[in-house]
Amino acid sequence: MSTDAQEEQGHRRAHREGYAVRKVWKDIASGFKDVERADFDRALKALAGGVVPALWAYAVDRFSRKGAEDLLKVIGKVRVIFDMDGLDSNEPRDRRWIINRAEEAREYSETLSRRVRDTKEEQRDGGLWVAGRAPWATRSRGTASSARIRHRRPKECRRARTNSPGRRRGNSLRLPSQ
Question: What is the mean pLDDT of residues 25-30?
Answer without folding.
Answer: 73
